[in-house]
Amino acid sequence: MLQSPVEFFRNLPKKVCPECGQTVNEQAESYLMECDYCLSKKSE
């Protein structure tokens, strides 16, 4: 039986920051890989 698209996206694992391992708070239309903390360290 095929899974509905909504269930497919609900079951995807959370995105994790490759720098620190913290879960990334995703937002629509966002393709960022790092968390806000690691991104702010890079801009310094």
Automatic annotation (TrEMBL):
In terms of superkingdom, the source organism counts as Bacteria
Pfam families per record: YhfH (PF14149)
**InterPro entries, alphabetically?**
YhfH-like
Under which name does UniProt file this protein?
A: Protein YhfH
Q: What is the lineage of its organism?
A: Bacteria, Bacillati, Bacillota, Bacilli, Bacillales
